[in-house]
Amino acid sequence: MNKLLLLFPLVFIAPVQASEVTVGQVCKAASAAMFGRDHKIMQLDKVESDIAYVHYIRQNDGTRWAIKCKLIGDQVMWASDNPNSTGRWRDDPAVRHQKVVGP
User: Where does the signal peptide begin and end (predicted)?
Assistant: First the structure.
């Protein structure tokens, strides 16, 4: 039986006007939108080599969640930046098609 599997990776692509806002502001706003959080809880840690480092504390359990963002043209690219799980840059296509062949 052939199955078609759609994978929707966590890719956030949004047009931005970089001349009007900083990479830190964009990263905070994108993080809030991606993770369904209030932008007011997003904290900018630093901006280094055009990469913004942002974190927030999850209210229900007090855990710290961190990401890093960079702007490529008018797109926001991000990666996890947690101490135990630094992640890859999420620059994959928004939708990928995979074919799974099995019984």
Answer: 1-18
Residue 38 structure tokens? 């209030």
Question: Which structural domain, as residue segments, surrounds residue 74?
Answer: 2-101
Number of domains, the chain: 1
Q: If you average pLDDT over every residue of the chain, what do you get?
A: 79
Confidence (pLDDT) at 1: 45
Q: How far apart are CA 59 and CA 62, in angstroms?
A: 5
Greatest mean pLDDT among 17-26, 37-46, 68-77: 37-46
**58 in Cβ contact with 65 (< 8 Å):** yes
Residue type, 60: N
CB proximity list for 78: less than 8 A, separation 6 or greater: 12, 27, 30, 31, 34, 67, 68, 69, 70, 89, 90
d(CA 62, CA 13): 28
pTM: predicted TM-score of the whole model, two decimal places: 0.68
- Residues 27, 18: Cα–Cα separation, whole Å: 11
